[in-house]
Amino acid sequence: MKAAFYNHKGPARKVLQVADxxxxxxxDGEVLVSIRxxxxxxSDTKTRSGARGNTAMPFPxxxxxxxxxxxxxxxxxxxxxxxxxxxxxxxxAQLGQSMGTAAQYTCVPQQNAIYxxxxxxxxxxxxLGVPALTAHRCVFADGAIKGxxxxxxxxxxxxxxxxxxxxxxxxxxxxxxxxTEQQAAIACRAGxxxxxxRHSMDIVGEIANISGGEARCVDRIIEVAFGANLATxxxxxxPRGVISTYASDVExxxxxxxxxxxxxxxxxxxxxxxxxxxxxxEDAVAATMAGLREGWLQHNIAEELPLSQVSDAHEMVECxxxxxxxxxxxx
Length: 331
Hints:
By secondary structure, the chain is of the alpha/beta class. The chain has 11 helices and 15 strands.
């Protein structure tokens, strides 16, 4: 089968290769999926590049990408034969193993291959996984949000786009920050009630204006840039509010304002999809499936590229493209 892989870490164009590798066989409890689309996440590019000094190779050869979609080709022992031929979306394909979705076939535990409704394309299915599950956890980990005000920073990003939709589904008033007019249109499409440009607007002042003069009105913040936005956060978070964060790339080791946060009785919720417990995964999958079945869950595909352009795809993600980059995989 054709696959993209690397056998040492570094820049995409230097280490990624596309060549033939053996087709895997499903072990007990696994399914073999014929991949039709593979989604690229920042965690995929960071793992490949050796970000933050993580240059060790846990396997001699790694086929990247956690997310994808395709059709179940065969099943291992303990998996119903009836699943063969089922359209599925996949999450955490490369977690703990060497073979992700950047290939014509991959094997995953059967619970990581979720039925993909006919109203959802393979490319859209490959958007889910990390972004949708992360977004759901960030929005709902600390309870119901009906009637609350939720701020989604980076509302046009892969996680932010889904977070806006989940927050609206949960009954919140949703604010979102973006950096460009194009991103503003994306956040509006997701359903944000108010979209704020962080470069051209005074975020604290604008939030105060729309809330009757009180800037400290945000119950929950879904945060893509924890350290960089902390000064703003401290001016808009309500007492007993929640900062639910999944990234802090600009300031990876920010100082924590302990006393101001404790005076707010604030909660800081760190979210990493790969270590979420089983219940959190199941809840997020259930909500995602509800959105797919009912037709309200939209997807933001930034670009679709062939497997031969996998290096281009990684570089687009590293440059901060808005939305999900998808690799098309032929059957």
